[in-house]
Amino acid sequence: MVKPDAFGRRLSGEIIARYERKGLKLVAMKLQVVSAALAEEHYAEHKGKKFYPALVGFITSGPTVQMVWEGENAVAAVRKMNGATNSQEAELGTVRGDYGLTVQNNLVHASDSAETAAREIAIYFRTEELISHTMPDEMWMLND
């Protein structure tokens, strides 16, 4: 997910381009302002924690871009490309290291496992919104 701070700074295209250049395949994308109900479902595991209200407040504060990416080790690849959650600790060359400012305003969200990804994808996308397709560089695999 491209969060409101990255969207507001016009970084969505740069972030999406990084994932594409990595070789990941985009199968769904949606621009929306996340409702409080969706935010509460998304961050349910943090409910009751001190930072929870600020987390929900931030993610609902402006437009976001939800995406579903496929590829070998896609979850791990995206998390590595995003960098450490605390932008001040993220390595240069990562999204957060290059553009992040703080812990909360850290530009992007990525699922931490395939199981979490499945849960989060279901929050934002209906099954029919996931577009299965073959990229030109995948065509050689069809002939084997």
What would you note in describing this structure?
It is a single chain. By secondary structure, the chain is α+β, with helices and mostly antiparallel strands. The protein has one domain: Alpha-Beta Plaits. Helix content is 42%, strand content 10%. It contains eight helices and two strands. Strands 1-2 form a two-stranded antiparallel sheet.
The assembly state of the depicted protein chains is single chain
The largest sheet, given as strand count, sense and whether it forms a barrel, is:
2 strands, antiparallel
| DSSP summary: helix tally | 8
CATH class: Alpha Beta
Task: Supply the CATH superfamily name.
Answer: Nucleoside diphosphate kinase-like domain
Distance between the termini: 35 Å
Question: What is this entry, summarized?
Answer:
The protein is an alpha+beta fold. Helices cover 42% and strands 10% of the residues.
Which short descriptors sum up this protein?
144 residues, alpha+beta, Alpha-Beta Plaits, two-stranded antiparallel sheet, 8 helices
Question: What is the element layout, followed by pairings?
Answer:
Elements (H helix, E strand, L loop, with lengths): L3 H5 L3 H11 L2 E8 L3 H7 L9 H8 L4 E7 L3 H9 L12 H5 L14 H11 L14 H4 L2
Antiparallel strand pairs: 1-2
